[in-house]
Design goal:
Shape: globular
Oligomer: single chain
Radius of gyration: 18 Å
Number of helices: 9
Structural class: alpha/beta
Order of helices and strands: EEEHEHEHEHEHEHEHHEH
Strand content: 5-15%
Strand order of the largest sheet: 8-7-6-5-4-3-10-9
Helix content: 25-40%
């Protein structure tokens, strides 16, 4: 579904009712996991105060936005009841909205959680299921002013890495995103509110992730901003022979540089400080970048 290919990119990126100026380098969306079983930080920020402190530090480090989630989507993760997800997330969102002005995103598949999050000032709904799991979520976001992240995932978190198979992963992911974008538009979500995410690591083996990352241009047919979330993923560990997710920074920065060259608009990252400092140097070396003027 080609909605905006013939138009030049807007000077700002829309996130709900907020706008963020485009840069030569991708915007950095800091990850805040309010979970006991995240693959990347092992429940370090399950405590509300710890989660808020971490999120504020990410903003201090240069995050352009925050993506907050209270249900792990790691491979093999079990679903979390709505009441528990809300218990974890609401105090964090309330504290952050009162203290930071960056866009906030809620990482959830549930309409009930998204509704409460929007009431607490969240700007973006990021549903890893592509608005498939909860039929009430799509009409709810369509009736709001929020932006949405449309992500591809084969299967569900509990089973997605058991045996992912594709004939042509790039063509299949692109076709799925285009078809699902058409569904969102028919439901009332205008295309300028949609951010597209190929779902790196969600129902994909290492070769699938590498194919998608090396053909990011093929995912731009919609004209929607592109978000990539490869930070600390298992395939990065496989490439580095590094089992500890927190020690995969070099791999993450290599992917960040590749995404910058491909014109990706947003990166979802754990280590905001390293990425911001990395891009500061790349921008200074790039004659076309405002930082080099």
């Amino acid at each position: 579904m080609n909605t905006r290919d013939d138009k030049p990119p807007a000077p700002v990126l829309r996130m709900g009712l907020r706008t963020v100026p485009r840069r030569r380098s991708p915007l950095l969306i800091g990850i805040v996991n309010v979970t006991p079983d995240s693959f990347s930080d092992g429940g370090r920020y399950l405590d509300h105060d710890a989660a808020v402190h971490h999120a504020l530090q990410l903003v201090e480090d240069g995050a352009d936005g925050l993506d907050v989630g209270a249900e792990s989507t790691r491979p093999g993760a079990a679903p979390v009841p709505v009441d528990e997800e809300l218990r974890r997330i609401v105090p964090v969102l309330a504290a952050l909205r009162a203290r930071v002005d960056v866009p906030l995103s809620i990482d959830t598949t549930k309409a009930a959680v998204a509704r409460v999050a929007l009431d607490h000032g969240v700007d973006v709904v990021n549903d890893v299921s592509g608005f498939r799991f909860d039929p009430a979520l799509l009409p709810m976001v369509a009736g709001s002013a929020c932006s949405v992240v449309l992500m591809h995932m084969q299967g569900e978190p509990r089973t997605m890495q058991e045996a992912p198979e594709y004939g042509d992963v790039v063509a299949e992911v692109r076709a799925w995103l285009e078809a699902r974008l058409a569904d969102l538009v028919r439901a009332g979500v205008t295309a300028d509110r949609v951010i597209v995410d190929p779902g790196i690591g969600f129902g994909k083996r290492t070769e699938h992730n590498l194919a998608l990352l090396t053909h990011l241009d093929a995912l731009r047919a919609s004209g929607c901003p592109l978000l990539v979330g490869a930070s600390r993923k298992r395939f990065v560990g496989a490439l580095l022979d590094e089992p500890n997710p927190e020690l995969r920074t070099e791999g993450d920065l290599a992917i960040a540089a590749h995404c910058r060259a491909a014109g990706v608009e947003m990166l979802r990252v754990h280590d905001v400080r390293a990425a911001r400092r990395f891009f500061r140097v790349l921008d200074a070396l790039d004659p076309a970048s405002p930082a080099a003027q």
